[in-house]
Amino acid sequence: QVQLVESGGGLVQAGGSLNLSCAASGTIFRANAMGWYRQAPGKQRDLVATISSGSTINYADSVKGRFTISRDNAKNTVYLQMNSLKPEDTGVYYCKVERYSPPRYAYWGQGTQVTVSS
Fold first, then answer.
1. pLDDT per residue over 61-70, tens digit each?
2. Among 10, 22, 42, 66, which residue carries the largest CB count within 10 Å?
3. Which residues pair with 93 in a beta bridge?
4. Could you give the CA distance from residue 26 to residue 95 in angstroms, rounded to a whole number?
5. What whole-number distance in Å separates Cα of residue 118 and Cα of residue 108?
6. Cis ω on the peptide bond leading into residue 41 (within 30° of 0)?
7. Mind listing the pLDDT tens digit for each residue in 4-36?
8. What is residue 108's three-state secondary structure?
């Protein structure tokens, strides 16, 4: 049984910073991709950032230059450092881990709330 445990969300003023982490527990083969997605109220869940096992990184245009994604393969953990936060960054942030080769899998975290006040 694999679980993704997220932490680091909270309430912050615009311009502030938060650091999210997502740790996978249980027996899990190395993920090909680890990433963060967010869902604002009434909107779809959108990609924020992903990082591959080879450290190829992809960011949504809206967070480039402000957010940094990283991973620790030994700890099966992915991080998201968020700086210069804006009210439009508000939402529930979900982590996702995927493996494309057998044993294939895709797991989502339970989500952590990030609220940025103006």
1. 999 999 999 9
2. 22
3. 38, 112
4. 16
5. 29
6. no
7. 999 999 999 999 999 999 998 887 778 889 999
8. strand
